[in-house]
Amino acid sequence: MEIANNEAVAKLYGLEDEIPSHVPLERVSLTNNSAFRWPNKTAEERDALFAQSAIVDLISYAVGCMFGRYSLDQPGLILGDQGSTLDDYLAKVPHPTFMPDKDNVIPIVDGDWFEDDIVERFRLFLRTVFGEQHFEANLRFVSETLGLKNLRDYFIKTAGRGATSKFYDDHVQRYKKRPIYWLFSSPKGSFNALIYMHRYTPSTVSTVLTYLREYVTKLESALQHAERRGNAPEADRLRRILVELNEYEHDTLYPKASENVVIDLDDGVKTNYPKFGAALRKIAGLEASE
Fold this sequence. Notes:
By secondary structure, the protein is mostly helical. Helix content is 49%, strand content 7%. The protein folds into two domains: 1-30, no CATH class; 31-279, no CATH class. The protein is built from eleven helices and five strands. The strands form two sheets. It has a three-stranded antiparallel sheet with strand order 1-5-4, with helices on one face. A two-stranded antiparallel sheet has the order 2-3. Strand 2 (157-159) and strand 3 form a beta hairpin.
């Protein structure tokens, strides 16, 4: 197409014999042109990077559907106004193929501790969009394309003394350090919960606190079980996590929930995100100019 355009313009001005129309693929500046995006890579490497990029885009879209920002049943933005509710979504999409999260809080932890955990929600998304018949193959393809044995590692992966989230790093980069999904996260990342800022209300932090307390209760039960089995390493690991989470609740999340923080999206992420202090995962460079 680029070559055809050049030929048409050259012919219009009678310059077809003087100006070359050929354009190297690496110079065609389309987002989905892998040769332009990765000019120094081999064709095989470009294919792998393109597939990975497509999967990251798919997951981003899936999370948008989880929060009601997007819908499988209707194109374009569905919920994009401050204080948007599930009722607002249902007014636009009365019979959704994929139902958004009810309370605008999606937990991200290191196992299947919650039914509405982000990995469970993504699995449901895959089943809904591509069908049950190919679910396992599709799930395997997603994980392998991302270079992971376990899909959960994309959302949360333990690293040293803390936990990282490649998903959230990708999201922050996608929105140029002004994310629309905000990640509540304990100091070492043992507990995380994602919210959509357009559905935020002053009670949202209290909902996150409820998830944290439920998680603590489950971990306490797991600790008792580990102690009964004599599994000392697991018991020690759980005790360390519980110390972290109890301190996070006492020092950070409960006080912030008590504030009933009010935000104004017109002020922008740069102004609103810091209102939650250490309750949210720190974003390097957030304070920079737009």
